[in-house]
Amino acid sequence: MLFHENVFLLILLPVGLAGFGLFRAMGRARWVVPFLIGISLWAYSPQGTVAMAALLVSVIGNKLVGQRILAAGEHGAGRGWLALGIGANLALLGWFKYTNFLLFNLAQLGGPQVAPLAIILPAGISFFTFQQIAYLVDLRTQKEHYDWSTYGLFIIFFPQFIAGPIVHHRDIVPQIVRIRRGELPEPWSEALAAGFTLFTIGLAKKLLIADPLAPLVNMVFAGAGHDPGPSLLVAWTGALAYTLQIYFDFSGYSDMAIGLGRMFGLHLPQNFNSPYQAVSISDFWRRWHITLSRFLRDYLYIPLGGNRRGIVRTRINLMLTMLLGGFWHGANWTFVVWGGLHGLALIVARLFPWRLGPGPGRILTFLFVILAWVPFRAPDIATTLAFWKAMAGFNGLVLPEMVGRHLGLISSPLLVFNNLPFRYLWQTLSGWSGVAAFGAGLLAALSIERQNPPAHTTVHRQLADWMQIPAAVAVFVLFLVVFHAKDANVPFLYFQF
User: Fold this and answer.
1) What is the pLDDT of residues 337-356, one digit of tens each?
2) For a Cys-Cys bond, which of 110, 275, 278, 335 suits 288, CB 3.0-4.6 Å?
3) Distance (Å, rounded) from C-alpha 401 to C-alpha 266?
């Protein structure tokens, strides 16, 4: 169920909050966890019977395997159960996500021609599979005994399990235990206010910034697959638009998930930290999809040997980690190319550890990220190459007509004028998205100021208190704007991963 659908905003969320508050008020906090599991299953039910069955089989199967690992202890049987659990998780993910990809590539190599199977990818399977693999691996060294309902809510808590953040049991389960005892980390009224603010900001990011960029992105990337293809400026405009679209779409979802979690007493981990301000590619991966980066580091890179086995092995480990991280995103060679580019960039950064200043480092990193997003968005390798060719200027230079007139270059044979992409871009930047960007930044600043006023000054505390009412009004107005501007048919980009 999408967070911006009417059934979610007007029915599921109010019912969930009312039930959460009612059980706590009645002194029945122990019922909150089963209730939230029911709400989460309700939120997932539109995915269909197959997806629901895959989710339940995964949760039940991993809990049973976890019990066997705990019972076996450090003996060989424990390692066997762990291998079985990891293998079963990867097999389930592979069946739904990579079967048709495998059949297609086998046919390309001369194998039997098999029609694609009617397999529908369950939303969130990549995320809840990773979370459970991490749980099973940790059981070898950390003997964590969770009851069924606690484990179930840890996996399928509806704000995050479909598209992240990827949560770790050590972070979430203690919070679930406190909720069951009737404890919250902060007064519920403050949690509701802060959570609703974050949710609204995330909703604005997606619906007022990311979604209006989609027509421009789709048009430019669709044109890259046909002759003559986009020109230099059009290609760069499309690539930059997608760079903004995927950030505001995914970080918007993460903000909404974190805000929803906070409303229900759970603090989910931060997933983004201004990634486009990174000064190096390593810094980018400390800021982008932070929870995925942590998982890849702790459960893939380090088990492969990390940087403990020499320079050559370190480079191999980096590349393998990024290739597999790219492939995790989707069953397409373009995702492998994207992961390989980032792996290569990490290796080059280690080979030539130049110390660029923040300015040059930030610019070069951002340019690389834009170029690397092309295969991530393109439908195939051929389109990727055609798009890079256009970005290199092989298809000529395109300027908006008004710019060409201003420069007096209308008659120049070197320029072809086509202002359609730029008209879309201008409408996007000058419309609701500009208002939303300013409003989101202001609300974030007010929220941070209110929650973390400097202790050394009374003026800041008074200012934060005085701004509570205007900030609340601004959040409510922004929510109304977003609610009426939304299109419930536009899914989140990361739902397909």
Assistant:
1) 999 999 999 999 888 766 66
2) 275
3) 52
- Cβ neighbours, 10 Å, residue 54: 23
The Cβ-side half-sphere exposure at 456, using a 13 Å CA radius, reads 0
Contact between 415 and 404 under an 8 Å Cβ cutoff? The reply is yes
Confidence at residue 359, expressed as pLDDT on a 0 to 100 scale: 78
Going from the C-alpha of 473 to that of each of 443, 479, 480, the distances in angstroms are 10, 10, 11
Q: What percent of the chain has pLDDT over 90?
A: 44
Given a contact cutoff of 8 angstroms between Cβ atoms, the answer to whether 156 and 62 are in contact is no
The residue behind tokens 């089989």 is 57
pLDDT band at 297 (very low <50, low <70, confident <90, very high): very high
User: What CA–CA distance (Å, rounded) separates 259 from 362?
Assistant: 29
Q: Are 395 and 229 in contact (CB under 8 A)?
A: yes
What is the pTM (predicted TM-score) of this model? 0.83
Structural tokens at position 99: 């079967």
Angle ∠(24,30,32) on CA atoms, nearest 5? 60
In order, the DSSP letters of 403-449 are HHHHHT-TT-TTEEE--HHHHHHHHHHHTHHHHHHHHHHHHHHHHHH
The answer to whether 162 and 169 are in contact (CB under 8 A) is no
CB neighbourhood size of 247 (10 A): 20
Which entry of 329, 342, 456, 484 is annotated as an active-site residue?
A: 329
In one letter, which amino acid is 201?
A: I
User: What tokens appear for 62 in the block?
Assistant: 């991993």
Report the distance separating Cα 275 and Cα 289, nearest Å.
Answer: 9
Task: Taking residues 244-264, report their average pLDDT.
Answer: 92
Omega cis (within 30) before 228: yes
329 in catalytic set: yes
DSSP three-state, residue 397? strand
- Give the 3-state secondary structure of residue 399: strand
Helix (H, G, I), strand (E, B) or coil at 4: coil
Q: Quick one: pLDDT at residue 27?
A: 85
Q: Name which of 151, 63, 134, 50 is nearest 92 in CA terms.
A: 50
Q: Are 252 and 2 in contact (CB under 8 A)?
A: no
What integer pLDDT is reported at residue 458 of this predicted model?
46
Residue keyed to tokens 């397999």? 119
